[in-house]
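Worked example

This section walks through a single chain of length 363. The input is the sequence exactly as stored; nothing has been trimmed or padded.
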Amino acid sequence: MRRALLLAEKGLYTTGENPRVGACLVKDGNLIAQGFHRAPGRPHAEIEAIKQTDAGLIRESTCVVTLEPCSHVGKTGPCAEALVDAGIARVVVAMEDPNPLVAGRGLARLRDANIDVVVGLYSEEARSLNRGFITRMMRGRPYVWLKSAASLDGKVAMPDGESKWITGPDARRDVQRIRGRCQAIVTGINTVLADDPQLTVRHNESGLVIPEGLSAEQPLRVVLDTQGRLPISNRLLDAEGPILWVTGSHCQHPMFANGRIEQWVAPLCDGRIDLKALLLELGRRQVNEVLFEAGATLLGSLIEDRLVDQGVLYYAPKLLGQTARSLYDIAPTRLADAPEISIQSICEVGGDFRLDWTLGTRA
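Given that input, the structure is written out below as tokens.
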């Protein structure tokens, strides 16, 4: 199963709306075939493994797979049926598929065919690999990453807005790995106007490995722009990849004519884009994981609304002082109201520190 999980991780940057799955076929204690799901429309992990070896050798073998074999017809055929037809004797599954179209039906089909089924081996590792897919299936929205970078005294920019670069190149490359696993990146219009970012994934310079036969794709870049202030010319539009312009009302933009951007008019909450509605819309668009890279106001709203699933904070060994701009725009009136976080890990990334955190549970 550890090998199957490593195989599944090869699809970290390319499976899109699908789960990351790896599979191994074992017979008489020997690995006879293996596979992983590469991208939507491509063979699932079990099928890729089955195609690698002789049909006679597969009979009476064991399939070790990180996710319950599917039982429905989507862009590909049902894997559970393929395992039955191949004469597999035993299937070891890390976790049940949370997709309502499957949700135990694949396991039931295998058992109906008198195949021995074991479920739960390395389930936590499998769930971690597919946290986005699970969140979308269970909650209808993507798994939310919040990335920020600050000095040791919690500042993100000088008083005039200068912020390039607080962290070093190693931390910035690490951010690319987070971007690469997400199907969407969200920012606010103030960040676009102030920093003119591209918000793309630099696959080659960051060492992100794309499976053979596939091309690197850019995530959906989402700009929250309540008043419709997106400039006609900016680096966001110049870079490759789809753009979703989220506004509070119908607005015109010259880039509509050539299809460069798509507009979605979002419901408002207190005069701002309703973030919960936004996440549900991204879920409908089959986004499993979304990264928010934005200013203090938007990130602060995510924290206050308790919408953050995974926070990543890069700390640089700098002190910017009391007049510099702060990290998150939150304003608890009492210490007891201050959001608490649970620190998961702290590690060095070049000359900086990476702190992974989640929101603590409320008392």
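What to look for: The radius of gyration is 23 Å.
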